[in-house]
Design a protein that fits this description.
By secondary structure, this protein is α+β, with helices and mostly antiparallel strands. It is built from ten helices and 17 strands. It has helices spanning 7-19, 31-40, 58-69, 82-88, 103-151, 198-214, 225-235, 330-341, 347-359, 378-384; strands at residues 2-3, 27-28, 46-49, 73-77, 96-98, 161-167, 175-181, 186-194, 246-254, 259-265, 270-273, 279-282, 300-303, 309-313, 321-322, 325-326, 368-374. Helix 2 runs parallel beside helix 3 (58-69) and helix 8 packs antiparallel against helix 9 (347-359). The longest helix has 49 residues, at 103-151.
Length: 385
């Protein structure tokens, strides 16, 4: 379509376009008329004179055509003053032709405009398809995250109290935790952290969780933490897991006596807090699981006394950073746990509240998992025995 208020100029331009092999579907003599014509039969391209008679000049008409119909516009103008050209840019034209121009300039301008518009349309289509794909993936990730959360056991109140908080940094993380009865007197509990984030890490953590929950390693005594870690290290070498490894803490508590066996592979030390506030660390020197094929792991044994509280956690709970700087030392994190252990209700929520105060925001940059095991107080413990 040609939009030109001087009829002779419009007819001359139509002749040039026809000679170049283009079809002119309409001649409009005002901005208002160009909008009416475009609404009825949209052209592939509009050649628009800037200086149109009437209430709407070419720049205003081009802006509306672009917004309403997304039709590419090339401006035709005899005006070359900077103010007019700067104003014309606001309507995002696909080119300028300064009168007078020859047919070669006209063809080149039209071909470039059509090429740019086609590229823009393709980009918009790709963006739309990408957004649809992202929405679909988000929905699938949300469903996967819901599934992972559904695997986690409910809090336990007897014979010991066990509670947890699981906060993946994204939809899916590499942390996982759990606990279950091995027999009438023993409870196994564990927390692991697979390297990386996203689907790959989550798939490995779910596989590990199902193995632990079902005690699915043939010939392994799941009442012996070091044997469990040694077997997992043998079956989950990083060379066969996409270069992923994991750290893990695994404990077995005999709750009738308070006897605890614990082992870890590259995992942060578990922390035991006595009723008087004393802090004790549980850690063995095992390497992360999956790194060294022939690695072995050892147990540490400790009695848990009445009123003791044990915390097991991922490193995302205390390795809090502001830029490159650590905002919290491990000792400061232990102090937060010690204060929480003195609270009988919502203790893990208090831990998370203090950690959020440290980082100054509600969300964490890494997966955060916390498991709290509380021994009953003296009277309840004696009654249970």
């Amino acid at each position: 379509m040609i939009v030109e208020d001087e009829a002779i100029v419009a007819l001359d331009l139509e002749g040039q376009l026809t000679g170049l092999g283009f079809e002119v579907i309409a001649l409009a003599h005002s901005g208002e008329e160009s909008l009416r014509i475009a609404a009825g039969g949209r052209p592939d391209l509009i050649l628009m004179d800037i200086s149109l008679a009437g209430a709407m000049d070419g720049i205003q008409a081009a802006s509306q055509l672009r917004a309403s119909f997304n039709i590419p516009v090339i401006f035709l103008t005899a005006l070359t003053d900077p103010a007019t050209l700067e104003r014309a840019k606001t309507s995002e034209p696909y080119g300028y032709l300064v009168k007078p121009f020859d047919p070669r300039e006209l063809r080149a301008a039209i071909e470039m405009a059509l090429f740019k518009h086609a590229a823009e349309q393709e980009r918009q289509t790709l963006v739309s398809e990408l957004l649809e794909t992202q929405d679909r993936l988000k929905a699938e990730l949300a469903a996967a995250a819901k599934y992972v959360a559904s695997l986690l056991p409910p809090p336990m109140t007897k014979p010991v109290s066990i509670d947890w908080r699981f906060l993946p940094s994204g939809h899916l993380g590499g942390d996982c935790l759990g606990y279950h009865h091995l027999d009438d007197n023993r409870i196994a509990f564990y927390l692991l952290d697979v390297s990386g984030h996203g689907i790959g890490a989550a798939m490995i953590s779910v596989s590990l969780f199902n193995i632990l929950r079902s005690e699915g390693l043939s010939g392994v005594d799941f009442g012996n933490p070091s044997a469990v870690l040694t077997a997992l290290n043998r079956h989950f070498q990083m060379s066969q897991q996409g270069s992923r490894f994991f750290t893990m803490g695994y404990g077995v508590l005999r709750h009738d006596s308070g006897r605890l066996l614990y082992s870890c592979g590259g995992h942060p030390a578990a922390v035991v807090i006595s009723p008087d506030g004393a802090i004790h660390r549980l850690k063995t020197n095992g390497v992360p699981i999956g790194c060294v094929p022939q690695a072995s792991y050892e147990n540490v044994e400790r009695p848990l006394a009445p009123g003791d509280t044990l915390y097991l956690f991922s490193d995302g709970a205390y390795e809090l950073r502001g830029g490159k700087e650590l905002l919290l030392s491990f000792a400061q994190f232990e102090a937060i746990l010690s204060r929480a252990a003195r609270e009988s209700h919502h203790s893990l929520d208090l831990v998370l509240a203090e950690l959020r105060t440290v980082i100054g925001r509600a969300t964490f940059s890494d997966d955060v998992s916390l498991l709290e095991l509380r021994m009953p107080p003296e009277r309840a413990f004696a009654a249970h025995r």
